[in-house]
Every structure is written in structure tokens, then in C-alpha cells.
Amino acid sequence: MEAQSKSVDTLSHPEALQTDVITLNMGPQHPSTHGALRLILKLDGERVVSAQPDIGYVHRGYEKMAEAMTYNQYIYLTDRLDYLSAIFNEWCYCLACEQLAGIEVPRRAEYLRVISGELCRLSSHLVWLGAMGMDVGAFTPLTYTFREREMILEIFDLLCGQRMTFNYCRIGGVARDLPAGFIERVRDFLKYFERMPDVYDRLLSDNAIFLARTRGIGTLTQELAHSHAVTGPNLRGSGVSKDLRKDDPYSVYAEFDFKVCTQSEGDALARYRVRVEEMRQSARIIKQALDQLPAGEITAKVSRVFRPPVGETYARVESSRGIQGFYLVSDGSAKPARCRIRVPSFAGLSVMPKLLHHVQVADVVAIMGSIDFIVPEIDR
Amino acid sequence: MSRPELQVEQLQAAFPEAKAEAGKAFGPELLLGSVEQLVAVCEQLKTAQEFGLEVLEDYTALDTGEQFILVLRLTSNQIITRKLTVKVSISRAGAKVPTLCPVYGSAEWYEREIFDMFGIRFSGHPDMRRILLPDEWKGHPLRKDYKDERMLKRPGA
Predict the structure, then answer these.
(1) What are A265-311's pLDDT values in tens digits?
(2) ∠ at Cα A377 (A117, A321), nearest 5°?
(3) Which of A19, A125, A206, B52 is 20 to 30 Å apart from A151, CA to CA?
């Protein structure tokens, strides 16, 4: 005790410095964790020795809840998994139900799902882009991206009366047809949005500070990505061209002309570039879908009480964060016997301890931002 | 280059002690006779040139009432349409399951989740703790016999 109270000249006596490894609790309430996630960092000075994510703060028992609800009752809940791109959750869940019962979805409904899904991908990437910029100290992009996102949310408001938790997909189709003026509204938006990725490019892609904060930071090697089952833009940022929309086409994706965006570096900058390019491609898909939109029914004939035959299925879609999967087991009753949700962010976060190993503490925020996970989906 | 889709005969020939079937959900299904084979089979599926399934996309369990079934979804990042489901039944009474962590990095968290939700322990796992529920939680919610006094009964259920 006495030694501490005396002032010691640490320059001539460096051994008097307390240089132990310290533990830093980041979260569960922290602006850069994008939700209630706790990260236990062990720091040696500015360097991270170990990083252990602690999850479960917003666990709501989704898989258990499914066993007590009918198939139809569960649809609206799936919106609250990845709330930034809610359509994909509903879509994947309905796809699993349709596979279980062998339901053919009308083509118009498939198109409406694609249009709303790609709009969702746009709005999700816009949120990510703004947040990512802010994580590394650039506030301005957020004000741009949220402006565009607001336009998309208003389009969704028009489509289904909701801005984020849409409850739009139904088993066998979608809840309602396009409202009057919807197509023009989306076309106007696309026309406006066309040049926006270039604007974002000018704000961030050539910004020296942004490049310094992201280039060569948090490099995800292919081996690590394979081993941890990383999917989506994070995997494509590591040079693996895997996109279910292209490689294992579901719905009507085979009918659209679009590119799968990849970058080979695997760092935070590569993941950024993949997502910005994906926005351009999503806009292309929406445009084509509007042009080719067929007329017809928006839902298949499905009985009000949905009782799929005994069996099981595993449906997958490419959500904005990667591969989303629903594993449903039916015992022939009106409630699923087991509902397992495979979420992309779970794998994306499980790779964190390895990505954050021996990085500077300031880069933790940049790496977490570039991985783009979402906590309610991880915790379920 | 081998064919993108795995063939049932090819799987049956490589794993005579298991049973290969044409699955409906996710590629062919490989049903293992005992859980002891799990690690060796996965190792071979991952490293052998003819399979190349280096991604454990999902790993979960199922409670049928009489037994647990472990369900693994394997895919490839090279031959992307290639997929395989591996299933193995284990007894509900404290079966020892060997960990897959040395083979697949994603197994670490998946196995923790299976332990959390079903109470299945994985031997050799580096960090066998609950992952989503608090450490002091009692019971494993996705078991069919799970009871919790705070659970609400739905009217008519």
C-alpha cells in the first residue's frame, strides 16, 4: 500500500508500472455492439489478448415458442429475428412450411416476395453502411443512408402498413397485392437511388481515414470462414462466390440477371465493398422484377388450419447477412414438433474470438461493424 | 471434377457401417449406427477429395420423446450445390457425445447451444457452458419433458 502512495518515477523504474492484462467489459449496453451483446476483452495495453462474446441477453425462446403455436400464428414472430431485413425471416419460414406441405406458390407472389426482399436487403445494407461509417468516426454517411432508408420504409408502409415488422408473407403466398401507385413509387425511388452508391463511394470509399481504418483490418481467411460456416457478404468478401440466389436458386431468382459480388482481400474494406456493390445489384433485381411482374393470384389455396403431413424439411434463403435456414419437423398436427432456426449472424459472431485476436482495441469496433451481425437473430 | 450432387451409392460405399438414404430435406441423408463414429465420419467427409464438405452449416438436436437425434447439415464452399444431412440417434439418458470442435470451428457454439437446450454433453469440448440461457437456469427447455412453473397455458391447449 505504501509503495503505491509514493510517487515513483516510472521512466527510470519501468518495473513499477502496473502492466498486467486488464479485463474490459464491452457491453451489453454499448453503442458499437448494435444490440445487447457483451464482449469480454482481455487487454495487454492497446492490444487484445482474448475476446469472448457473451450472448443471450435478448433470448426469447423462439424455438420453444414455435412448439406451442400453430404454423400460421408463428409467421409474425419471425419478423423479430433479424428485424432489419424481416422479409427474409418470414420468407424462409413460409418456404419451409410450403416445402413440408408441397405447396406451389403462384408466380406473382414469388415476384412480390423478391421485390419486397430486395428492398429489404437495400434498407438493411443502408443501415449497415451508416452504422459502419459511424463506427469508424464518419458521421455524415449515416445522414445520407437513413434518408434513403426512410424512403424504402415508406414504400413498405404503403405495401403492408408496417415499416419494419412486415408480417407480409403467408404460407402459400403473400398477404396482399400491390396497392395503387406502388410500382410508380418504387420506380421513382430506384431512379433516385441509382446514383446513390456512387455518392457513398465518394463519401467513404476514397476517404483516407476510412481506408486506414478498414484496409487490412480483421482479415477473415477462407479457412476460417469455411470452418466457422460464415456465409453471406462476409464470405464473399473473402473471395468465395457463394450466393444461394445464384448457386441454389429458390423462388424466381433464376429469372433475373445480376452479379454475385466478391472481393478477395477478406478485410473490413472488402466486406464494405461487397455490400455497396450488392446494393447496386439489388436495385437491378427490383427493376427487372417490376418489368416482368406477372399477373395472377397472390396466394395458393391453403386450408385455414394448416396441417402439413408428417415429415421434415430444411429451407434456406440468402438473407442480407447470409444463409438463413428453417428446419421444421411436423408430426401431422397443427403445431410444429420442432422448429430450428439457422441464423447467419450466429456463425458470424462465433468467429469473433479469432478475428479479434491481437488487434488494437480501436479496431474491435471497426471489425464488429464490418461483420454486420444482428443480436436478436443470434439470441433468438 | 466429380459430380456436384453426392450419390447415395457413393456414400454407402464409403461408409458401410452407416445407412445412406435419398433424403428429401437437404441432400442425401447419412444415418450413423453409433455416435462413436461421428468424428471419424465427419473428418473423412471434410478432408476426402470426393466429398469436400468443409462447412458445418447447422448442427442441432431433436427430441422424439424416446431418444435424441443429432442433425448435422454439411455443405461445401467449393461445390456449392453439394449438401448432406448426417443424423445419429443417441439415448436420452446421458449419452456421451464426442465433440466436433477439432473438425469444425462452428461446432463449438452449436454444441454449447445443444447442451443449453437439450442437456446433451459433449466430451472433449473446450468450453462446455450454457450459451443463451443464464448459467443458473434449471433444466433444458427444448426437451419435451421440460417443465417450468412460469410457463403459461394457452386457453384450449
Answers:
(1) 889 999 999 999 999 999 999 999 999 999 888 888 888 888 889 98
(2) 45
(3) A206
Residue A316 CA to residue A114 CA, distance in Å, equals 14
- Closest of B131, B100, B136 to residue B118, by C-alpha: B131
Nearest Cβ partner for A240 among B77, B81, B141: B77
Tens digit of each residue's pLDDT (9 = 90 or more) over B29-52: 888 888 888 898 888 888 888 888
What is the complex's ipTM, to 2 decimals?
Answer: 0.86
CB contact under 8 A, B132 and A379: yes
Would you call A74 helix, strand, or coil by DSSP? coil
Domains and CATH numbers, chain B: 8-94 (3.30.460.80)
B→A contacts (Cβ < 8 Å), by residue, are 24-26, 54-58, 60, 62-63, 71, 73, 77, 80-81, 85, 104-106, 108-109, 117, 130-134, 141-142, 154, 157
Could you give all domains of chain A from N- to C-terminal order, each with its CATH number? 53-379 (1.10.645.10)
- Residue B105: which of A227, A248, A325 has the nearest Cβ? A227
